[in-house]
Design brief:
mainly alpha
C-alpha cells in the first residue's frame, strides 16, 4: 500500500467525526460508571 502524503478533506472530516463519536461514547460510559458507583 503506497503512502499518501496528502489526505483528502473527506477523509479528515470523517476521522474527526469518528473521534467525536468516540469521545461522546466515553463520556456516556463515565456517566454510567458514576451512576453505578453512586448506587453502591
Amino acid at each position: 500500500m503506497p503512502k499518501r502524503i496528502q489526505l483528502p478533506d473527506d477523509f479528515i472530516k470523517h476521522d474527526f467525526k469518528q473521534l467525536a463519536k468516540i469521545e461522546k461514547h466515553q463520556e456516556q460510559e463515565l456517566d454510567l460508571l458514576g451512576l453505578v458507583i453512586f448506587k453502591m
